[in-house]
Amino acid sequence: MVEVLKDENTVLLKTPSSQNGVGSVITAFSDYLKQQGISDHSINRAIIVLRELLVNAIQHGNKHNAAYPVTIGVRKLEQNKVKILVKDYGRGFDYRSLDTRLPENPRKIHTRGYRLIKAFCDSFEFNREGNEVTAYVSISLASKSKY
Questions:
Q1: Could you tell me which of 36, 11, 41 has the C-alpha nearest to residue 24?
Q2: Which DSSP category does 95 fall into?
Q3: Is the sign of the CA dihedral 17, 122, 47, 43 positive or negative?
């Protein structure tokens, strides 16, 4: 079950480390961004970033151990950006050796997640341990219909 806490500019989500919770997290995330008036195109880009961060935290960080939650924080920033923070409770990893360049063989899926994250966000950064990542995604607001 996904826990959701919201205020005007922030949503905090906590989910067990199970693939079963990914859909619920994405739905709550998408609903929050829609309430903030963000365009569908921007929401789709942000969903790709969140999904990859979340799957990495579940698979590699918490090793699918449902006893360890994944915590997600999302905040709409004033500079037309969304800040997405994902924290797992694993040991972390050496993110300094992470290669986010496109592979020579496009069918190679190893580290595909961070390549997608890099493609769809402005920047991302890790905490010292490598078990928390913050991504910044540019957004545009939804057009207001005149009808």
A1: 11
A2: G
A3: positive
The order of strands in the sheet holding 69-77 is 3-6, 10-16, 69-77, 81-87, 132-138, 123-126
The pTM for the full model equals 0.90
CA distance 72 to 11: 8
At 78, list the tokens: 């004033």
Q: pLDDT tier at 109 (50, 70, 90 boundaries)?
A: low
3 has which bridge partners? 14
CA dihedral for 71, 54, 82, 97, sign (positive or negative):
positive
Where are the chain's structural domains?
3-138
- CATH top-level class for 3-138? alpha beta
Q: For residue 31, what are the contacts with CB-CB under 8 A and spacing of at least 6?
A: none
- Answer whether 49's CB lies under 8 Å from 42's CB: no
Please say if the pLDDT value at position 146 is more than 60: no
pLDDT, residue 145, reads: 63
* Residues near 98 by beta carbon (within 8 Å), at least 6 away in sequence: 111, 114
- State how far the Cα of 1 lies from the Cα of 123, in Å rounded to an integer: 30
